[in-house]
Amino acid sequence: MLRIICFSIFAALFVFAPATVHAQQNRRERAELAVTDLTQVDGDFHYQGEYAGRVRGRFGEGPVGLQVVALGGGRFQAMEYRGGLPGQGWDRRTRESYTGVIDGDFLRLSAPGRNVTIQIGRVVIRDLNGRQLGVLDKVRRSSPTLGALPPRGATVLFNGTSTEHFTNAKITEDGLLMPGTMTSKPYRDFRLHVEFRTPYMPFAREQGRGNSGVYIQERYEVQILDSFGLTGEFNECGGLYRFKAPDLNMCLPPLIWQTYDIYFRAARFDGSGQKIANAVITAMLNGVGVQNNVQLQNKTGGGKQEGPDDRPILLQNHRNPVHFRNIWIVDYSPGARATTVAAR
Question: Rounded to two decimals, what is the model's pTM?
Answer without folding.
Answer: 0.89
